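Notes taken during the Thursday session

The instructor put the following on the board and asked us to keep it in front of us for the whole hour. The protein is Peptidase MA-like domain-containing protein. We were told not to look anything up and to reason only from what is written here. First, the residues (455 in total):
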Amino acid sequence: MASRWLRAPVVLCGALLLASCGAQTPDSSRNATTSTTVDVFQQQRTDGVTALLHRLDRALLRGTPADLAAIVDPAASPEFRRSLQVMQDNLSSITPRTDAEARQPLRYKTFEHYVGAADAEELVPDAVAAKLTAQGSSDSWVSPVRLRFALGGVGVPGLDESPIDIEAPLVVARYDDRWTLVGDLEVLHRPPNGAGLWSFPGVRATAAPTGTGQSVVASYPGAAEMAARLVALLPAAVRAVTAFWGDRWPQRALVIATGSDQEFAALAVSGGADVSAAAAATVYTTLDVPNHAVTGQRIVFTPAASRLATPLLAVVLRHELSHVAVRLATKPDAPQWLTEGVAEYVGRKGTYVRFEDVAPDLAVTTRTGAAPAWPTDQDFAVDSQRASLAYQSAWSIAAFVAQRYSEDALRKLYLGVAGAADDAAAAAAIRDAVGVPQPELERQWRAWVRKQTGG
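Then, after some discussion, the predicted structure tokens were revealed:
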């Protein structure tokens, strides 16, 4: 929900007054008075909107539709009203439930909106501001609201996650001492940047015992059967990932089964990418590798994944859980031949007999005489025609290292390269893990692939 902030006229006016007064009369008390006036105005805004946000959170978590309607501006769009009602339906503890006991509403131990800091303010669109003024509003504001939330408590007993903090700007209007909600990014004619689990109707959750705790599978209407399959697969999938990476990870995850491409695109923040060929994505909100901190990890499955046979679905689940297990050791710019290749290796381990079972495209390409190509990050794009070959090639690199050098060497290679500070450190990590530089490793890998395929 990133936004670009501009200064509001009142702040600019205050700044200009300070500059002109300072030039004409170097009177510190006059400057202080002007600055204080601006601060008082802004503080009144902040206090008023803070009270409005408290009412919003109470309505969403413990309120009725009438409580929500009481704080929404008459100028608010039907779409904004519907989005708030969907949130309340998903979040409110007093909303009637008709689901089976195994599928519960998601619960949050933290869920609060607050007014954050901003370098400047974005102007309310002229047409919206004019409509609010005609209704009697004395002020309108694109407030730099933030949302802090964390799953936990009843309904998600094993998933006690750290708070996640995101931008959630809101357009608000003032009528005397009363503030109302006018809209969100839609009013500003900008698409939302991602979505929360509460953003689509009917989200429910099922707990799945894994490792030393519990994972949670969230799902939407139309995905209940997929959710049940994932719940059944999760315990063995976590054990398989732990067998490779060890037990120094939470051994639990939040897994989401979406019921539409729209839900997947928003929850996985996939933008305009073609998700028709995708099965799942692992996303996170913040990652701080040096300080060993990550928030908002989720594994999101596409609706198309429900058509996968159970053995292949298990491969995808293990692949994505492998990303979760080593997220804190993986810098965001780590090379995908490594991150995707090792995840594929973990996901597919023990599921195939022949090289061609995992890498049919790579086998065909090699047999035609083309030299196996070490994949680049661009090759892995979901909507890239090279994506299938890139994933197969990356898997084969990991499989080659494990077979030629050992799985210990593969783990060492991953941890060294994925956490490397720069290219020189990555090159040193490769040599340290397998005893040869990357060009020699690539040469050995190409020879191995040719041998596996008869190319």
